[in-house]
């Protein structure tokens, strides 16, 4: 036995193999040691923060990262897109740092920003891939990350200050659509005498009286139907009103493909607090039930949304902060009575063609240096014209735009108003 060991020891091949094994083991030990030291180093001398896409701060943080001086060249885009009507499409692009590793310098510290996108995991609520952003920096700097989150939130809120946020449905939740819009002053929408004040008071009164509803077991919601010819200010008024109340607007298109009863129900129940739910042109989605029987084709393109599904969803809408639903239509006579019964629609208002008062007020708003006499001459001229009998504020606005600096020409050319 001793002889065998001695002979193996002298064997050059065996010696070399032994050496190799030795080197391999040493390397493995070193690698292990390095890994442990790295873990130790990360634990004790680095700070990391993970923000997942389920967290509200996620998009704030991405926007903030992109707004930092050292902009990354590796971007990804969030596009919001909305079909507003035939041939009317609105698109907005937001650029945010793309998946991968980026470096930024903030408050004298280098920060590694790692954006990860999971290929296998999707958020079951929104159907989008699960994502996270991991911020890493040297030292124990929890405060630094708190500052960053605070700043990200502040700048996101600053962007919204004095603005109205429009939300549109994305899968089963509401997402802000485009950049927040500058609030439109309520006074810039000229409705007939006292009409705007009436709606504004009604809503403010509703918002103040939650206990009245709860004490009587009435769902805390209020529905409004604004009807009338196109271009008379239905949408503009609702947008301005939302601005006045500091509410957002959840824009829901009932013709949207893929909108089922369940989804609508869910969307209405998760609509952001402090927002108005706006169903524009409700007649386009649902003709009266009798008409639908006669003409089943009308139901085409409605996805799996049924009329009773819409009614149920509207009835189920209530929230502790009060739910306000606005519907608009150019054809109120096409609406089913069940849709507009009290409880679903509490206030119905006609937003009609211009009254004399509106013409006069629009003239004075457009030409503030003119006096009431000139405004009245404009009204007289308009009424003497055939088109002037039923003229919409949109037409009047278009006419004034042609004569921005000349009220005289606006008066003398009333016969040229576009129909
Ligand atoms: P509707 O929703 O009734 O079809 P919109 O609100 O979309 O009408 O109005 C279309 C355009 O006409 C907007 O640019 C808006 O500024 C202008 N407009 C309509 N009505 C009024 C109004 N009453 N006062 C001021 N501008 C108006």
TrEMBL record:
CDD domains with a match to the protein in the record: RecA-like_BCS1
Residue span, BCS1 N-terminal domain: 21-189
Localization: Mitochondrion inner membrane
Gene3D superfamilies in UniProt: P-loop containing nucleotide triphosphate hydrolases
Keyword Oxidoreductase in record: no
A Gene Ontology molecular function term of the record: ATP binding
Keyword terms of this UniProt record: ATP-binding, Hydrolase, Membrane, Mitochondrion, Mitochondrion inner membrane, Nucleotide-binding, Transmembrane, Transmembrane helix
Membrane disposition: Single-pass membrane protein
One of the protein's GO biological processes: protein insertion into mitochondrial inner membrane from matrix
Gene Ontology CC annotations of this record: mitochondrial inner membrane
Domain AAA+ ATPase, first and last residues per copy: 220-355
Regions that span the bilayer: 12-30
Domain of life: Eukaryota
Reactions catalysed, as given in the entry: ATP + H2O = ADP + phosphate + H(+)
PANTHER family to which the protein is assigned, alphabetical: BCS1 AAA-TYPE ATPASE
Record-stated family: Belongs to the AAA ATPase family. BCS1 subfamily.
Protein name stated in the entry: Mitochondrial chaperone BCS1
Name of the encoding gene: 20215213
């Amino acid at each position: 036995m001793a002889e065998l060991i001695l002979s193996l020891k002298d064997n050059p091949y065996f010696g070399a193999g032994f050496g190799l094994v030795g080197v391999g083991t040493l390397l493995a030990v070193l690698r292990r040691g390095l890994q442990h030291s790295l873990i130790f180093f990360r634990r004790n001398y680095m700070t990391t923060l993970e923000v997942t896409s389920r967290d509200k701060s996620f998009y704030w943080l991405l926007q903030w990262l992109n707004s930092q001086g050292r902009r990354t060249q590796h971007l990804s885009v969030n596009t919001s897109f909305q079909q507003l009507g035939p041939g009317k499409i609105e698109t907005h692009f937001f650029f945010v740092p793309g998946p991968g590793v980026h470096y930024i310098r903030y408050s004298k510290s280098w920060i590694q920003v790692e954006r990860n996108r999971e290929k296998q995991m999707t958020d079951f609520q929104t159907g989008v891939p699960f994502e996270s952003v991991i911020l890493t920096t040297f030292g124990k700097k929890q405060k630094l990350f708190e500052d960053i989150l605070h700043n990200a939130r502040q700048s996101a809120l600053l962007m919204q200050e004095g603005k109205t946020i429009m939300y549109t449905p994305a899968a089963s939740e509401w997402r802000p659509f485009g950049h927040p819009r500058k609030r439109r002053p309520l006074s810039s929408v000229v409705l007939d005498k006292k009409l705007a004040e009436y709606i504004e008071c009604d809503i403010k009164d509703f918002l103040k009286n939650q206990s009245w509803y709860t004490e009587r077991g009435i769902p805390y919601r209020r529905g409004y139907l604004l009807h009338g010819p196109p271009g008379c200010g239905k949408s503009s008024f609702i947008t301005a009103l939302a601005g006045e109340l500091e509410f957002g607007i959840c824009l829901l298109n009932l013709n949207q493909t893929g909108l089922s009863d369940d989804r609508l129900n869910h969307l209405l129940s998760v609509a952001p607090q402090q927002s108005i739910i706006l169903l524009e042109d409700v007649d386009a989605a649902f003709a009266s039930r009798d008409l639908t029987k006669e003409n089943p084709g009308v139901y085409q393109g409605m996805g799996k949304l049924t009329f009773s599904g819409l009614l149920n969803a509207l009835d189920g809408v209530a929230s502790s902060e009060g739910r306000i639903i606005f519907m608009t239509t150019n054809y109120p006579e096409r609406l089913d009575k069940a849709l507009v019964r009290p409880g679903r629609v509490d206030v119905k208002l006609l937003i009609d063609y211009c009254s004399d008062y509106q013409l006069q007020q629009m003239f004075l708003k457009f030409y503030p240096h003119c006096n009431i006499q000139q405004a009245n001459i404009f009204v007289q001229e308009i009424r003497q014209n055939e088109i002037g009998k039923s003229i919409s504020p949109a037409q009047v606005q278009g006419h004034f735009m042609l004569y921005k600096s000349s009220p005289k020409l606006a008066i003398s050319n009333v016969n040229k108003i576009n129909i």
